[in-house]
Design a protein that fits this description.
It contains no helices and 20 strands. It is mainly β and about 280 residues long. A hairpin with a 4-residue loop joins strand 18 and strand 19.
């Protein structure tokens, strides 16, 4: 039996999974740079390829695991996704590990090994995998607050705050250059989401996100008719951010204090905003 595909760059490829979605096959895998002499991981991430499979020979058209792949999640913490076929509802589901082998997280001191992501529904559009929270999570919603408002200065909106919530926004940036959206804010803490319309760069910064973790991740995001949509799930120690209907996702662990419940909107210009908030 030969190899399905190979890598000449990474010291290990793990957690492979291949499945069919419509007329496409998707190959998931996790490349890892390692120090094999010390047997420790140095850098890990989770990717996928859209491939063609010859069902007669079992051969795929792209055997090179080192290029032509897409990131499954652009955040700090998403690894080893597990794929399930929900045949009853004709959909493909995924749950990932919100951690990395090389990450140092405060919970490790107490013997914990990360947490799992919320379940996600996968779809293929234009040869890309889109990832969205399963609709069943709507059953967790309570105490809805919504706004249809023009944001012209930094503000806090009444009723929109907390640590465990779902925050859905659509920002029209026709008259704005971008925004900062600060989550889990206290006197000395904040986790900052930002978008710059000129560079098209969407960022997540956790330099002030609490204990143990720092850094910044980014992804290039095109606006859709001058708009960007976000679906954000916040838990006590995690953020999962779904951008433009799941075209991109950024997931991260954060460790703020219990006092970090603020949410601050900072427009760079005038933003027409639709905001839908739920406690969960």
């Amino acid at each position: 039996m030969g190899s399905l595909a190979t890598s000449n760059t990474y010291q290990m490829i793990e957690c492979p999974d291949m499945f069919r979605m419509g007329d496409k096959y998707i190959l998931f895998y996790c490349p890892q740079y390692r120090d094999n002499e010390k047997d420790i991981p140095l850098k890990s991430f989770s990717v996928y390829k859209v491939i063609d499979l010859d069902e007669t020979t079992g051969e795929i058209d792209d055997k090179n695991l080192d290029e032509n792949y897409f990131m499954m999640d652009y955040g700090f913490d998403f690894y080893a996704p597990q794929i399930m076929q929900d045949e009853k509802n004709n959909r493909c589901l995924m749950i990932g590990w919100l951690a990395m082998w090389e990450s140092e997280m405060p919970e490790q001191e107490e013997g914990w090994a990360g947490m799992m992501s919320i379940p996600r529904v996968l779809e293929v559009k234009n040869n890309k995998v889109y990832s969205l929270p399963i609709p069943e999570l709507k059953k967790l919603r309570k105490n809805n607050v919504n706004y249809d408002v023009n944001l012209v200065q930094n503000c806090i909106l009444e009723g929109i705050n907390g640590d465990c919530y779902e925050l859905n926004t659509v920002f029209d940036l026709t008259k704005a250059n971008g925004f900062n959206l600060k989550l889990r804010v206290s006197e000395n803490e904040e986790t900052v989401i930002s978008y710059d319309k000129n560079s098209k760069i969407f960022k997540l910064n956790r330099d002030k996100s609490g204990k143990g973790v720092t850094g910044e991740r980014e992804v290039k995001v095109n606006l859709q008719d001058e708009k960007i949509s976000l679906q954000i799930f916040s838990d006590y120690s995690s953020l999962e951010i779904f951008i433009n209907g799941g075209e991109y996702v950024i997931s991260s662990r954060i460790y703020p204090t219990q006092e970090a419940t603020g949410i601050v909107f900072e427009p760079m210009g005038e933003i027409k905003a639709k905001i839908d908030f739920y406690e969960i």
